[in-house]
Specification:
The protein is an all-alpha fold and 223 residues long. 76% of the residues lie in helices and 0% in strands. The chain folds into 2 domains: 2-157, no CATH class; 176-223. The relative contact order is 0.15.
């Protein structure tokens, strides 16, 4: 039974593998360009495991940013994971591996798991660990390439933006309830107009979180 679960999880994560290897390679190349070798690529991918934040971390390391700047930037970049947690409360209830599953909740892992209605804990774990391994391997390969082969890496960082666009489109096409996406878009636009491009992210995330909680509570009361 466990072998079958591993097989199902692996097959399910093949599209993520294709993306993570490429994106991980991009991160590894950028890290190599600022003088950090394979060990750093592995450690960052294992312990941080946040694709967009790891790309940003390269710039922060290169500019010798302060810990305060790093903390604020991390909140801004990865604050969206707060919203993932709200929708996974029921799935992760009474799960022994919950700490790692929470740590490993990337955009792509969330996208896969939120589509599953009735899978066991092992399935969730293997989905998460497979995706994590893909990212680590990609980062290592990219770092080795960036260290051994000199080339112009300009534009590689745009790969994360392209990935987020693909995720949004995929979620829109595969889910029937588009209310969260619509609320997110409206909140982002309104906050962008009010607070400007440099300060809109946190207000937008807070507004989205409040609205999602209200919508979730209202739905539970109607059931």
């Amino acid at each position: 039974m466990k072998k079958e679960t591993v097989k199902q999880a692996f097959i399910k994560t093949i599209p993520v593998m294709a993306g993570y290897l490429v994106l991980g390679i991009g991160f590894g190349v950028l890290l190599a360009k600022i003088g950090y070798g394979p060990l750093y690529a592995i450690l960052m991918s294992v312990t941080i495991y946040a694709g967009s934040m790891q790309y940003v971390a390269v710039s922060l390391i290169d500019s010798a940013a302060s810990l305060i700047s790093v903390g604020i930037t991390t909140l801004l970049v990865n604050g969206r994971h707060l919203f993932y947690g709200l929708s996974m409360l029921e799935k992760y209830q009474n799960i022994k591996r919950k700490p790692y599953l929470i740590f490993g909740m990337t955009d792509e892992t969330y996208s896969l798991l939120c589509q599953e209605e009735s899978k066991d804990e092992d399935y969730y774990f293997y989905i998460t660990i497979f995706n994590h391994c893909y990212w680590v391997i990609g980062g290592l390969i990219g770092n080795l390439i960036g260290t051994l082969i000199p080339f112009n890496s300009a534009g590689i960082e745009f790969s994360m933006t392209a990935l987020f666009v693909a995720i949004v489109v995929e979620q829109w096409l595969t889910t029937k309830n588009h209310l969260p996406a619509i609320l997110g878009f409206i909140c982002a636009v309104v906050c962008l107009v009010i607070f400007g491009p440099e300060h809109f992210l946190i207000p937008a995330m807070l507004a989205i979180m409040v609205l999602l909680i209200v919508v979730r509570k209202g739905g539970n009361e109607n059931e």
